[in-house]
Amino acid sequence: MGMNLKLKNMKVAVVGLGYVGMPLAVALAKYGPVQGYDVNKKRVADLKEGWDSNREISSAVLRATSCEFTDNIADIADSQIYIVTVPTPIDDNNDPDLDIVEKASAALGRIVKKGDIIVYESTVYPGVTEDVCGPIIERASGLKSGEDFFLGYSPERINPGDEVHTVENITKVVAAQNDDVADLLVELYGQMNGGNIFKAVDIKTAEASKAIENAQRDINIAFINEVTMLLNKHGLCAHDVIEAASTKWNFLPFRPGLVGGHCIGVDPYYLAKSAIDVGHQPEVILAGRKTNDGMGAYIADRIDYYLGENDRRDADILVLGFTFKENINDIRNTKVIDVVRALKDKGHNVDVHDPHAMVDEVKDYYDLDILSALPQEKQYDCIALMVPHSAYKEMGVETICRYVKSDNDARSIVYDLKHIWNNQDFPDSVDYKYL
Ligand SMILES: NC(=O)c1ccc[n+]([C@@H]2O[C@H](COP(=O)([O-])OP(=O)(O)OC[C@H]3O[C@@H](n4cnc5c(N)ncnc54)[C@H](O)[C@@H]3O)[C@@H](O)[C@H]2O)c1
After folding, report:
1. What pLDDT does residue 77 have?
2. Phi, psi values for residue 76, rounded to 5°
3. In this structure, which residue's CA is closest to atom 3 in ligand 1?
4. Whose CA is nearest to atom 30 of ligand 1?
5. Is residue 406 part of a domain?
6. What's the pLDDT at 408?
7. Residue bearing the CA closest to ligand 1, atom 37
8. Residue 209, domain member (yes or no)
9. Which residues are tagged catalytic?
10. Is the Cβ atom of 20 under 6 angstroms away from ligand 1?
11. Same domain, 282 and 401
């Protein structure tokens, strides 16, 4: 017998208002009653004031939204659909840390009612929703999963800072414990993107799909990173080689670089752990992680080598960009820190500039003082571009050269990790290098 679920009469609560949850809550609130709940009182107070410290949603949109923000879980107890978007990080041993998602599940277990639906969006490995979270909710509520309350899973694909792939236009995968709930989720999420929903056969399939998407990307980048290292030894330019290879119809043109952030550098460890749990030793997945995690040290070695070639020791280096990727202010798990620390260990003096990263946050997380404005007077032996923020892409050769020393015999280095200045005509006093 069908469950006769009617979205029209349902209230939605989003649990965890970070990079994923807050924009989702605001987007869903266009179509029906939505509340956003977070344990972080400061975050909730900021959002109520119209301030998104992640800079994803403007104050005007936040002030206009019908979404109600709260730090009191009792306020969301009358919802029928709960969407969980809390962090799923790794610990110091690179093992999945499910602590936060477990705590959120226990808290929901204390307010869940018969007929409610709990959808997880946090990235996990297959089985976490039904075999880890479900039993926690059952224990806290005394209700039965799949009978009294229903679980769903819908992996999040948004890519902060990406204006092309947005909640409104990317295909969303959904899955649930039964077809009626899955259909309700198709309707719920479909409101936001014109019905562009893929219904996965079951929750574990949807969980696995997310884990392999990011692991695949990680491995592809790792391959290109390894290729770049060997091409460097050949004295060849990886970008030129990739450009030539890209003329083949089925070559995948990934670019070398640092792999930071809390998705691509993290999710493969979730997949690896789930492999080990079922008795499969993951080789390729972990090899990709190892290669990518070593890139910071490799890049610092290259910069140090080029400086040495130009007789520049104990050099003054200006690192451009600190966030984990371009045009966002997110510094969590940025791998630029590996480059900065390795360069300092080699005896260089390093200044770091980033137009987006928050100075206080960098100090708190990494005990590092960064510049939010480019230095007025100082000149450097090396400019090391790490993050291709638009502001850097727009810099012409004259602006770049303003920051390099040109007053002695040795040439200065411009190290362009992302190859964004390859069309610039640098003067002879500059040795232009890239990954
Ligand atoms: N950021 C991305 O680009 C992205 C993309 C796809 C998937 N994901 C996944 O989405 C999930 C959330 O990521 P994020 O980047 O939004 O994290 P985030 O750290 O930006 O936000 C998480 C929020 O959850 C809150 N929180 C923690 N415990 C809570 C609890 N018990 N109850 C209520 N709120 C709680 C935190 O205070 C924080 O505001 C993760 O699993 C992540 O892997 C993230």
Report:
1. 98
2. -100, 10
3. 159
4. 104
5. yes
6. 67
7. 40
8. no
9. 263
10. yes
11. no
351-363 tens-digit pLDDT: 999 999 999 999 9
Domain boundary among 260, 292, 324: 292
- From the alpha carbon of 332, which atom of ligand 1 is closest? 19
Which residue has its alpha carbon closest to ligand 1 atom 18? Answer: 18
> Mean pLDDT over residues 92-116, rounded?
97
- Helix H, strand E, coil C: the string for 392-407 is HHCCCHHHHHCCECCC
Does the pLDDT value for residue 416 go beyond 60?
yes
CA of residue 153 to ligand 1 center, whole Å:
15
Between the CA of 60 and the centroid of ligand 1 the distance, in Å, is: 23
Give, using CA atoms, the residue closest to atom 41 of ligand 1. Answer: 122
pLDDT for 241-293, tens place per residue? 999 999 999 999 999 999 999 899 999 999 999 999 999 999 999 999 999 99
Domain-embedded: residue 380: yes
Amino acid at position 411, single letter: R
Asked if the structure places residue 403 within a domain, the reply is: yes
Q: Which pLDDT band holds residue 1 (cuts at 50, 70, 90)?
A: low
308 and 279 co-located in one domain: no
pLDDT in tens, 309-348: 888 889 999 999 999 999 999 999 999 999 999 999 999 9
Say which CATH number the domain at 256 has: 1.10.1040.10
| Ligand 1 proximity of 339 Cβ (cutoff 6 Å) | no
- Structural domain of residue 191, as residue ranges? 7-203
- The answer, yes or no, to whether any atom of ligand 1 lies below 6 A from the CB of 38, is yes
Q: Is 150 helix (H, G, I), strand (E, B) or coil?
A: strand
Regarding whether 342 and 235 lie in a shared domain, the answer is: no
Q: Label residue 4 exposed, middle or buried (CB < 10 Å: 0-12, 13-18, 19+).
A: exposed
Is the Cβ atom of 100 under 6 angstroms away from ligand 1?
Answer: yes
Query: If DSSP codes are grouped into helix, strand and coil, which group holds residue 371?
Result: strand
Report d(CA 405, CA 317) in Å as an integer. Answer: 11
Q: Which of 23, 2, 7, 210 is nearest to 117 (CA)?
A: 7
Tell me, using a 6 A CB cutoff, whether residue 145 lines ligand 1.
Answer: no
* Distance (Å) from CA 9 to ligand 1 centroid: 27
Please count the structural domains in the chain: 3
CA gap 335, 362 in Å, rounded: 13
Return the structure tokens found at 142.
């005394």
Mean predicted lDDT score pLDDT of the chain: 95
Q: Which atom of ligand 1 lies nearest, measured to the CA of 54?
A: 20
